[in-house]
Amino acid sequence: MALTAAFGVARESGCQGFRAFLGSLLLRQGEPPNCRSVAFLVDIPTVILSLTAPFAAIAYLTILRRLESLVPDLQRTGLLPDDADTAAKYQVLRQWLHQLLPRGWKSCVLFAVSAMMTVWLYTRNLESGGIFQALASPAVPEEMLRDHWWADYRQHPVLAVHCILVGTIGVHYALASAWLYALVGRHLLSRSRRKSLAFRVRYVPRWRDRSFGWSPAIALIMLSYASTINFAISMIAVFDMLQTGSFNRTVAGAFATLGVLTDLTLVILTLNDVGKVHQGVRSSVRKSVARGLDKAEASREQRTRQRRPIRNGRSRSHSVATRREVNIILAARDLDSWPALPISNLPLGLLKVAPGVYAIIQLTRTLTGGSS
Fold first, then answer.
1. How far apart, in whole angstroms, are the C-alpha atoms of residue 282 and residue 69?
2. In 3-state terms, the chain is what percent helix, strand and coil (to 5)?
3. CB atoms within 10 A of CB 184
């Protein structure tokens, strides 16, 4: 925004491009705005990509950092024990990530491929971008708008390079995220890999962690889901740039469908595994509560028999519950409200899913030829 403002192409006076964008968000077609050029703020597909590109980088780096620190985070909540077996499996996980992630020369190759893809998309947008068709009018045809595009390399080469650079960063981290998700997905589908990294999970009462100790893992899954939403929104903008050429749109459509379905499948598989382990912990806690109640009852009877008489002939009973009995009571209360997934606030969690549903609806409309 600052760079385009410095070149005087951030906005155009009298151009109501944002109104058309708002109509698209509300799933209805608005009137074309009165614009004589394509300034940055009315180039909605590029504005969207300028937001999704840095988010892709931030999301990937954050997911990677949280994945590498997931085991210590789960140990702090008490879900994983701090023992030699957990430490050994944690080292295996770190080595696995370090060896397989695209780093070093692999990252350079990935960046080069991302740059070529971005340049190709830039040229397609300049030739047949949907923004020019949306803003065109009898007084201002598409050819005139293309000559007055804020990122036209013939008029503003610095802005063109900057546009391609930002897009390259977004594509690079989107591909890196896809590689990371593929590795995690292969781990989830491989029994041998799952067995080699099968951590021993313990019960964490709700009063210590509202998600029963799973808070770091749930936050990581929700961040992956947000990354999926970001990818879907990016592909909506990409399709707006590929208005002509059935082959280009078919390839992009297959890429978008594969990416969204793969990401959603990974999120669902991860939540399913967390749910299974969580229910296994519940079954273990149920058995422990049953055994604890029997032991507590036996201990209470023993204390009753051993109570000491006082001067007036009455007896003094120890009515204060032991720490073990308190833990049993708290565990029994947790069992009464044990959710299928260890999410502290399920309605809020469902509300967080809504943006993804909307993004997928918009992407589906775009793939099927509807207005985006």
1. 25
2. 70, 0, 30
3. 17
Cβ atoms within 10 Å of 131's Cβ, excluding its own: 26
Helical segments of 101-156, H only: 105-128, 130-135, 142-147
N residues, the chain: 372
Return d(Cα 362, Cα 187) in angstroms, integer: 31
Q: Which residue has the tokens 């709700």?
A: 206
Q: How far is CA 68 from the centre of its chain?
A: 16
List of long-range contacts for 293-299, beta carbons under 8 Å, 24+ apart: 293/328, 295/324, 296/322, 296/324, 296/325, 296/328
**Residue whose entry in the numeric block shows the structure tokens 């204060």:** 320
pLDDT in tens, 259-316: 777 777 788 888 888 888 888 888 888 887 777 767 766 666 666 666 655 555 554 4
pTM: 0.76
* Tens digits of residue pLDDT in 221-263: 888 888 888 888 888 788 777 766 666 667 677 777 777 777 7
Closest CA to 42 of 91, 4, 94: 4
Give the span between the Cα atoms of 225 and 59, in whole angstroms: 10
Mean pLDDT of the chain: 79
